[in-house]
Amino acid sequence: MKLLQSLGILVLAVLTGCQSGQNAQSENSFFNGKDLSGFHVFNQGNEPSKWKVVNGEIICDPKGTGVFGDLITDKEYENFELDFEWKVGKGGNSGVFINVKEDSSFAATFATGLEMQLLDNANAEPRHQVDSTHWAGCLYAVECIGSNSKPNSYGEWNKGKIRQKDGEVTFWLNDKITFQENVTTEEFKAKVATTNMKNYPSFGTFRKGKIAFQNHTDSVGFRNLRLKEL
């Protein structure tokens, strides 16, 4: 009896270890820390771009060689948690998009995807400073919990997190929620209709899509990217 119990415990430990390994592999496979495998430039395929990997960080240098464009995943995601760290230069502006539909009929990622804004609030352009929906951590141009938009100074790393589960989307900036709403509701659609995003009919209409990192006119860096599908 004791032998059977011991064997049962051993099998359970092995299965648990395998499951943990699979979860870790699933989370780590999003970005391997070495190159841009699994990513490409929106609507431009694997053309050499201004994006590169340096010391485990994804870096975009707008003055570098290669094509200009947002870096996008090869794969689409629906229910997931994405953790990452980001930094920009003085006055820097970038973003992370979810639910992006890649198609030649869409000229940019923002035509479909929801953007978590990344911004140096303190030194941003005046048009961004006066509109709380443009602040760091916000759903760009739509909604924001402005009191929680407190990015670190430019050049310093910030923590970002995006979670989507059955239409409920939450953004975190430095462990504080900056946006949370079910984006499938009529109330959300009505809200979008009052913003400039109404000019993009397909904005926010997809429940599943690719994840994109914005190539703006400023340098931006990402590290410690982990994605867990839910």
Automatic annotation (TrEMBL):
Residues 29-228 form the 3-keto-alpha-glucoside-1,2-lyase/3-keto-2-hydroxy-glucal hydratase domain. InterPro entries: AL/BT2_dom. Pfam families: 3keto-disac_hyd (PF06439). Residues 1-24 form the signal peptide. PROSITE patterns: PROKAR_LIPOPROTEIN. Keywords: Signal. This is DUF1080 domain-containing protein. It comes from Sphingobacterium tenebrionis.
